[in-house]
Write a structure and sequence with these properties.
about 500 residues; 16 helices; 3 domains
């Protein structure tokens, strides 16, 4: 074997499986070639095949590029109103000291990043496409903000450029995949709702049959379940954005970027969103009070938690104007905080004790088994935060500012995880009726299956009866034919 043949054979052995046929074809052509130049060309062609990019690599890069282009276009469109507002604040209203609310400065970029992730999921099937889209959108928003600040020549905002660029870019990589997950969950829930609405199941002809009763029950519950699913998503959205406020508020970089007053206002906005979420939860749980024990437990969980959110409203509103050094801090700030955290802890304990458990541990054989445990963990962390935020009386010093801030962040993250499930799927363990809907769907499916089996057995029995009657008719016709034949012979 010549050196060229050995090189082609070695290159073919290391080729991907989808390209080894190319190497074999080149080896066959090489065996029929005597020209040295042609043999060198074939060896170089084999080497080029080996170093080519893997199959699908170029297509994957194109999908990533498509996701990046779409997110860049979204960031450009979304920055138009934000850029106009920034120019107005830095040029027109600079002397009036007008500041943009924290919910706008933080919530608007967050909404853009979540939308970029959702659009990236539609643009590409690659797992990393939402991250690329989020990085692109966050980086472009930061660059546009830097350019706007440079053009308006605002030195106060120029000092905040490093603080704004890094959170936007890193936040894009974090929150864009969250947007993709939410979009996927919403699409799955929509498909499930459409499949239920367009289900070909119809009630059986016989009144009072199992299928008719189950299907009528399902039909009566469908509209109610749709309203409950919508209300559950609203509840999840309120708790989602409220939790984000409580996650961002205690973080030092956020407080330094927006200022102490805007930071306190962030907590107040988060508490208002928590109150709206608690009200939605009460609307969900109120019709289930007669359903003991799960319905009654859900109702108690809802109204006790809502009472805690109202106390948080008082606490966060007072914290806007009352500093920790004030002698009124423990009364108007820490007091409602402690009572609200106690309400959250009681509601979390009721919810956990009413959830499916095996002893003190949750059962893992049902959907959403983790929700009650994570919710209780968030309530415990909020309670620790309340205890460590007590003012000791020494120049506004708290028991432990670091522990209080981090337990608030972690507790809000627990509530955020539960809110994502409720907002995305429209189902929560806190609403027994939504759990019963899935049980009802299984009952309908089982009833339809049993009814179909029964009808099949009835049809098979009728077919056997008809076959038997046909056989008897054939035997009778044969006997009759023989009798007629004998009569004809006798006459002849």
């Amino acid at each position: 074997m010549s050196m060229a043949s050995r090189l082609v054979a070695a290159a073919t052995a290391v080729m991907p499986a989808s390209r080894r046929d190319w190497g074999r074809a080149i080896a066959s052509e090489l065996s029929c070639t005597t020209s040295a130049a042609e043999r060198a060309r074939l060896v170089l062609a084999t080497a080029a095949i080996v170093v080519l990019t893997p199959p699908g690599f170029v297509a994957g890069l194109r999908e990533y590029g498509r996701a990046a282009r779409r997110s860049a276009l979204l960031a450009l469109i979304a920055y138009v109103p934000a850029g106009v507002a920034l120019c107005l604040l830095t040029v027109v209203f600079r002397s009036a000291q007008v500041t943009m609310p924290a919910v706008v400065t933080c919530g608007y970029p967050l909404a853009v990043l979540l939308t970029a992730g959702a659009r990236a999921r539609r643009a590409s099937a690659q797992a990393g496409a939402p991250v690329v889209a989020g990085l692109t959108a966050g980086l472009l928003l930061a660059i546009l903000a830097v350019v706007t600040i440079a053009v308006t020549d605002n030195r106060e905002l120029a000092a905040a450029i490093p603080v704004a660029v890094i959170p936007l870019t890193v936040g894009g990589a974090i929150f864009a995949p969250v947007g993709a997950v939410l979009a996927k969950a919403l699409a799955r829930a929509t498909d499930l709702r459409e499949s239920v609405r367009k289900s070909p199941v119809r009630p059986a002809a016989r009144s009072g049959s199992v299928t008719a009763v189950a299907t009528d029950r399902a039909r009566n519950e469908t509209d109610r379940a749709r309203r409950d699913a919508l209300l559950t998503r609203m509840m999840g959205a309120f708790f989602l954005f409220g939790s984000l406020c409580f996650v961002a508020g205690p973080l030092g970089p956020y407080g330094n970027a927006v200022g102490a007053r805007a930071d306190a206002l962030t907590f107040f906005i988060g508490s208002i969103l928590f109150t709206l979420g608690g009200a939605s939860q009460c609307l969900l749980a109120a019709p289930e009070r007669p359903d003991r024990p799960a319905g009654l437990a859900s109702w108690r969980t809802a109204w006790i938690q809502s009472a805690g959110t109202l106390l948080f409203n008082l606490m966060t509103f007072a914290a806007i104007t009352v500093a920790a050094a004030s002698h009124r801090y423990d009364t108007v700030v820490w007091g409602p905080n402690a009572l609200g955290s106690a309400c959250f802890l009681v509601s979390g304990a009721i919810f956990y004790l009413s959830s499916p458990r095996r002893g003190l541990l949750p059962r893992f054989d049902h959907e959403g088994w983790w929700e009650a445990a994570v919710n209780l963990l968030g309530c415990v962390l909020f309670g620790i935060s309340a205890v460590t935020s007590y003012a000791t009386g020494r120049a506004g010093a708290l028991v432990s500012t670091g522990i209080s801030n981090w337990t608030t962040v972690l507790g809000a993250a627990c509530f955020l995880a539960c809110a994502l499930t409720a907002c995305g799927l429209g189902v929560t363990l806190k609403a027994p009726r939504l759990r019963q809907l899935r049980t009802l769907a299984r009952e309908v499916a089982d009833a339809v299956e049993h009814a179909v089996e029964h009808e099949v057995r009835v049809v098979e029995h009728e077919v056997r009866v008809i076959e038997r009657e046909v056989q008897e008719a054939r035997a009778y016709m044969e006997i009759l034919t023989e009798g007629v034949t004998e009569e004809i012979r006798a006459v002849e």
